[in-house]
Design a protein that fits this description.
The complex is a heterodimer.
Chain A (H helix, E strand, L loop, with lengths): L1 E4 H15 L3 E5 L15 H5 L4 E3 L4 H13 L3 E5 L10 H8 L2 H4 L9 E5 L15 H4 L6 E3 L4 H13 L4 E5 L7 E4 L12 E4 L4 E5 L2 H15 L4 E5 L2 E3 L3 H11 L2 E4 L7 H13 L9 E3 L10 H7 L3 H12 L4
Parallel strand pairs in A: 2-3, 2-4, 4-5, 5-7, 6-7, 10-11, 10-13, 13-14
Antiparallel strand pairs in A: 1-8, 6-12, 9-11
Helix pairs in contact in A: 1-7, 3-4, 8-12, 9-10
Chain B lengths: L21 H29 L14 H9 L6 E5 L3 H6 L4 H8 L23 E5 L5 H15 L5 E6 L6 H12 L4 E7 L2 E2 L2 E2 H4 L8 H5 L2 E6 L3 H18 L3 E6 L17 H9 L2 H11 L4 H24 L7 H6 L7
Parallel strand pairs in B: 1-2, 1-3, 3-4, 4-8, 7-8
Antiparallel strand pairs in B: 5-6
Classes of the chains: A alpha/beta, B alpha/beta.
Chain lengths: 327, 343
């Protein structure tokens, strides 16, 4: 067991998979000579050379498309977006080509590609650099979307994403890159589509992923002091979604709060809410509540930004609203 | 290669001698057969569309056949081709059978994509036909990615990427060309300039009508010519293919062509005059090829025999498409994801 930072765990996964399979390569802006905008790929150029760690010009649509084309004929690209915000100009490549080519070709072609990069809020980077893009992508059949919260899961999901024969989008987080955690020496791929109970409880289920898993755990610790026992489900995988774990948890706690960054209209939280009410309706003692980013573009001002994104106090407030309902 | 296009538009009539050496004659006969097959398949598709057997969009290639047939004649079988939604000619020239193509357009399980792709998305893995794509310019970076993979693996394959002049205004074209130039990828970008971006003529869609000029800014070799003679297309594209294969360098080729039908079946093409269309039909490369064959020694009887065979092949394909079963709902999940997927 080693204690690694989130970014180091991601890097280890990529290095191990590139050593295992010479069809795997990393491509993106500043991934090579600059050592990665967020140092996720630090040292990889020196290790693998310019053939397999490829710096690109600023042309997301172009290099995302290059990845899709290369994947169709048998390579296994890892395409880094400096941040997922910039994937907006490559949306057509992901939506219309990566996600569709298998179906349009009647199964003749597959697209084994990983798109990855930091997602969600950073710190005071303003409205254009703070998007939670997972909500857009998780609606698209043909794609898989994962969002790890801890270093070990980051490594396991990244390895699984690289080995998967479908397009997999890995949502990392700038605010998590420096977070440390234990990673088993033999950490292997984690199956996609499995959630984890990261804290057991009996009164309420808090569903979260990526950065908000940490927010949920902080809220759960505070709630415990007030005698409320919260279970925290870390989704890990947003598409496919682990219905079984969600339902089993809600059957135990009878209450559910979903916490995520990104706006409240639609999205992953709405999807979780729909499935839980549909699959565990008789077990619910209260409506499902969502704690999301407020329904406004992200403000630059530090206080307003923190007010907009989910914080432990908002999660605690939501849980208390549920607990005060008669059960 | 020099940077100036060698064939000025006004010099088009004197480009190719009409007398062909005998080896070339047999080759021309083979290419004519392909062009004739494409045209007859599409004419039957137009009929089937009117009869309601084909749904959605149907973009016909009629008038442009010499581009696909000539260009693909310059390839090895394992080279890659990727194109737009106007893809019937390309798929047939790359080796797809009329049966497989028509069954796809009829939405049948026996189609190349099991009836899931339709007219705009013809894929044929065994012939390295990487598909027709419906978002203008979106496939151009993909093509660069295929060429990237060839360079990565040093497999010696060349990618041909086709698109219309309407794609030249969108970002995908520029990003694809820019990256292919930067990384010296083995690819030929072929702009099929048929003068109309749907209903908008060149004069209202481009500040510079010479598409090949776009190559200059990216430091890419270029060529530009009118498509009158299918053998000339093979020769000119062949030079670019050779540059890609031997030097791993991209080329942008603008071929001036003309579609005789509207943008799609729903377009009556009111934006052009009947005279303009008739002028172009007089220069139909398919008719020219037939005339050459008839007068240069191949002879009318062999041509008629060939055409009879093609008619039979097309009729058989229509029958096959008519009689084929539709796909079952069970194929939807397995074609959306590779492997199991629990939603």
């Amino acid at each position: 067991m080693r204690n690694l930072r989130y970014r180091e765990a991601l890097r280890e996964a990529m290095i191990e998979e590139m050593e295992r399979d010479d069809r795997v390569f990393l491509m993106g802006e500043e991934v090579g000579h600059y050592q990665g905008a967020y140092k996720v790929s630090e040292g990889m150029l020196e290790k693998f050379g310019e053939k397999r760690v490829i710096d690109t010009p600023i042309a997301e649509g172009g290099f995302a498309g290059i990845g899709v084309g290369a994947a169709m004929v048998g390579l296994r690209p890892i395409i880094e977006f400096m941040t997922w915000n910039f994937s907006a100009v490559a949306f057509d490549q992901i939506l219309n080509n990566a996600a569709k080519v298998r179906q349009m070709s009647g199964g003749q072609f597959t697209c084994p590609i990983v798109f990855r990069g930091p997602n969600g809020s950073a710190r005071q980077v303003g409205s254009q650099h703070s998007h939670s893009m997972e909500h857009f992508y998780a609606t698209v059949p043909g794609l898989k979307v994962v969002a790890p919260a801890f270093p070990a899961d980051a490594k396991g999901l990244m390895k699984a994403a690289i080995r998967d024969d479908n397009p997999v989008l890995v949502m990392e987080s700038e605010t998590l890159y420096g977070v440390k955690g234990d990673v088993p020496d033999d950490q292997d791929a984690i199956p996609l589509g499995k959630a984890k109970i990261v804290r057991e409880g009996k009164d309420v289920t808090i569903v979260a992923y990526s950065r908000t898993t940490h927010v949920a755990l902080e809220a759960a610790a505070a709630l415990e002091k007030e005698g409320i026992s919260a279970e925290v489900v870390d989704l890990l995988s947003l598409r496919p979604l682990d219905e079984d774990t969600l339902v089993a948890s809600v059957q135990k706690t009878h209450r559910c709060v979903v916490v995520h960054e990104g706006w409240p209209y639609g999205g992953v939280g709405a999807e979780v809410s729909d499935r839980v009410q549909r699959l565990a309706f008789d077990d619910l003692d209260a409506p499902i509540l969502r704690v999301s980013t407020l329904d406004v573009p992200m403000p630059y001002n530090a206080k307003l930004e923190q007010l907009c994104i989910p914080q432990p106090d908002r999660v605690i407030g939501a849980v208390k609203r549920l607990m005060t309902r008669a059960s | 290669m020099d940077q100036a296009p060698r064939a000025a538009p006004e010099g088009r009539e004197s480009l190719v001698p009409l007398t062909q050496p005998s080896g070339q004659l047999d080759k021309l006969a083979g290419l004519y057969r392909q062009m004739f097959l494409i045209r007859r398949v599409e004419e039957e598709c137009a009929r089937a569309y009117a009869e309601g057997k084909i749904g959605g969009f149907l973009h016909l290639y009629i008038g442009q056949e010499a581009v696909a047939v000539g260009a693909l004649a310059a390839l090895r079988h394992d080279d890659y081709v990727i194109t737009t939604y106007r893809d019937h000619g390309m798929a047939l020239a790359k080796g797809m059978s009329p049966k497989t193509l028509m069954a796809e357009l009829w939405g049948k399980k026996t189609g190349c994509s099991q009836g899931l792709g339709g007219s705009m998305h013809l894929f044929d893995a065994k012939n390295n036909m990487l598909g027709g794509y419906g978002i203008v310019g979106g496939h151009i970076p993909l093509a660069a990615g295929v060429a990237f993979a060839s360079k990565y693996r040093a497999d010696g394959k060349v990618t041909l990427c086709f698109f219309g002049e309407g794609a030249v205004s969108i970002g995908g074209f520029h990003e694809g060309l820019s990256l292919a130039a930067l990384w010296k990828l083995p690819i030929v970008f072929i702009c099929e300039n048929n003068e109309y971006s749907m209903g908008t003529p060149l004069s209202r869609s481009m500040s510079v009508e010479d598409v090949s000029m776009k190559a200059l800014g990216y430091g890419v070799d270029r060529d530009r010519f009118f498509v009158d003679d299918v053998l000339e297309v093979e020769k000119r594209i062949g030079e670019a293919v050779q540059r890609a294969r031997e030097l791993s360098l991209p080329t942008l080729v603008e071929v001036r062509t003309y579609r005789f039908r509207g943008h799609s079946m729903s377009d009556p093409a009111k934006y052009r005059t009947k005279d303009e269309l008739e002028e172009h039909k007089k220069k139909d490369p398919l008719t020219r090829a037939r005339q050459k064959l008839a007068t240069d020694g191949y002879g009318e009887p062999r041509l008629e025999q060939m055409e009879k065979e093609v008619e039979a092949e097309v009729a058989e394909a229509v029958k096959f498409a008519d009689e084929s079963p539709e796909p079952d709902v069970s194929i939807l999940a397995e074609t959306t994801y590779s492997g199991p997927f629990a939603s």
